[in-house]
Design a protein that fits this description.
The protein is α+β, with helices and mostly antiparallel strands. The protein starts with 7 loop residues before the first helix and ends with a strand. The protein contains 8 helices and 31 strands.
């Protein structure tokens, strides 16, 4: 930073060296690359007049870049000696004295002239690598910021969902409250009406008693025996009649009963929902949870299903799961939000092997026995768009670019071809190991990852055929049937190992991480695999597609 930073320009502003010897301070304007001195305009004229210095190359002192390019490379230890050699063993530029004293035992010393092009090329390559790393870092920062926005949006959506759930529960409670209040009103009104009817009857009876009382008092005071005995006989008959009349039960009362402890226990046991941290599979501490299963057996199928591959598209905002059934020679689509929905079929001339996504609404599928590659539109129904005839039987297929496919065939030394969209072979690639690739996947930097059971390996090569890594484990981890491949958002590789009933997770450089899915998770002879935009993992197993989500241990049930 001191040598090349913005402060270097100020360091070259100096006083004329010749004027300094005479005790004067004159700003320098020029620099001589041979003398390695700075001169003012007057001294520069004298410098150019002298025969021994007139041919020296002089540059303007303000031209920092040109001055640095012409400046002599002097040894830091032997200040007066120019650096002319480079020790490759020590990776250090040295002068002749350093070479004879400190580097006598070194085997490889070359001249600076020979090494300069090599160093320049190395630094140029390093500059390109740094630019690539800068781009990668910027993309990761953008991805992280986008993830933060997505998390904030998801959190807000979840909060709104919880509030809506609370509102619905409150509505249920209010509805029950209204029903109880209406029942209280109904029962109380009935009791009140009965009591009011009895009051009316009692008031009539009271009037009768008042009249009888007046008649009785009048008969007693009149001293008329006939009236007294007539009234006496009628009173005795009425008393006998009243004894049989008052048989109506007394009105009941309304009672509200509740068990507060039971109510509290019910509320405590009520689970409004579950809040969990759903992680991507690239989080090595996450654990898989089977989210749902899609049964791809259809009534029109002529036999058992053999789902070779799967992918997920987003068509008009709706997720669509696309599978290829080798035995039933068909492409099937399902709405992911409706795992038990009716499938839509597209029959092919023979069994498809691998599927690759072209866009969010188009796929390409290789049909090896028919020597075809078909392109299909998903609406979400599968619709045949075109049939590309090929000169080879391609079993594996991947999308390399807007107008290129990469396909693999069996039994040839150059087993991987790059094709245009008409099926024409543009280039053949020698992977170095694999001759009969089962599956191919293209990474974000256009490297090819190829699997094949015959050599029990997973190979990564560039599009030029240069080997990036080869994964050939031994012992218990030996690959018997390496099949489907997919890549996580962080570059990790997910590889299906069919015979061991598991999915293996590797780093971007091919280092083993873990068995991310195993037989105990529900895998039975898995084959195809893919990831969707929400980090759900889809794995084909016979007639089923198993869909897994990954979450951390932070799970809260409320």
């Amino acid at each position: 930073m001191d040598d090349f930073g913005p402060g270097t320009k100020a360091a070259f502003v100096n006083a004329c060296n010749v004027c300094k010897t005479q005790g004067n301070i004159t700003p320098a304007t020029s620099w001589c690359s041979v003398c390695d001195d700075v001169f003012c305009d007057g001294c520069l004229k004298m410098h150019n007049i002298m025969s021994m210095s007139r041919d020296h190359e002089v540059v303007d002192i303000s031209d920092t870049i040109k001055r640095k390019a012409k400046q002599r490379f002097m040894c830091k230890i032997h200040k007066d000696k120019q650096v002319e050699l480079f020790c490759k063993d020590c990776r250090k530029a040295i002068c002749h004295i350093c070479c004879s004293i400190k580097h006598r035992k070194c085997d490889d010393v070359d001249t600076l002239d020979n090494m300069t092009p090599v160093v320049r090329d190395h630094l140029s390559n390093q500059s390109q690598e740094l630019k690539l790393k800068m781009t990668t870092a910027e993309n990761r920062i953008i991805l992280k910021k986008s993830r933060i926005q997505q998390l904030e949006s998801d959190a807000q959506g979840i909060k709104e969902g919880i509030s809506l759930l609370r509102q619905k529960l409150v509505e249920v409670i209010l509805r029950k409250e209204k029903q109880l209040l209406e029942k209280v009103d109904r029962f109380s009104n009935k009791q009140i009406q009965e009591l009011q009817a009895e009051i009316k009857s009692q008031e009539i009876e009271l009037q009768m008693y008042q009249q009888q009382c007046e008649f009785t008092a009048s008969a007693v005071t009149s001293n008329c025996e006939m009236d007294m005995y007539a009234l006496y006989e009628s009173v005795c008959e009425e008393s006998s009649h009243n004894r049989d009349k008052n048989t109506r039960p007394a009105p009941g009362r309304i009672v509200f009963t509740h068990d507060i402890d039971k109510l509290r226990n019910v509320v405590d046991d009520l689970q409004l929902g579950e809040v969990a941290v759903v992680c991507g599979v690239s989080d090595h501490q996450s654990t898989p949870v089977l989210h749902h299963t899609i049964d791809c057996q259809a009534a029109i199928d002529s036999g058992d299903n053999d789902l070779h591959d799967v992918t997920v598209l987003t068509v008009d905002g709706v997720k669509v799961t696309v599978v290829i059934d080798f035995k039933n020679k068909s492409i099937k689509t399902y709405q992911t939000s409706k795992p038990n929905s009716q499938s839509n079929h597209l029959l092919l001339s023979s069994g498809p092997w691998q599927i690759t996504k072209l866009t969010e609404s188009q796929i390409a599928v290789c049909v090896p026995v028919s020597q075809e590659i078909v392109t299909v539109g998903v609406t979400p129904d599968p619709v045949l768009l075109s049939t590309i005839k090929t000169t080879k039987m391609y079993y594996s297929l991947a999308f390399l670019g807007p107008s290129q496919l990469v396909a693999g065939t069996y039994g040839q030394y150059h087993s991987v071809d790059i094709l245009d969209m008409t099926g024409k072979i543009l280039k053949s690639i020698n992977t170095g190991v694999i001759k009969s690739p089962d599956y191919i996947h293209v990474t974000s930097n256009n490297n090819l990852i190829v699997s094949e059971g015959a050599v029990k390996s997973l190979v990564s090569v560039t599009s030029e055929g240069e080997v990036v890594f080869t994964y050939t484990p031994k012992g218990d981890r030996t690959l018997n049937y390496p099949w489907g491949i997919t890549i996580t958002s962080t570059g990790d590789i997910l590889l299906v190992e069919g015979d061991s009933h598991k999915v293996i997770q590797l780093t971007e450089s091919g280092q083993f991480v873990r068995d991310v899915l195993i037989r105990q998770d529900g895998l039975e002879y898995p084959r195809g695999i893919c990831l969707d935009g929400d980090s759900f993992v889809y794995v084909t197993c016979g007639r089923y597609v198993k869909v897994f989500k990954f979450r951390s241990s932070d799970v809260f049930q409320i």
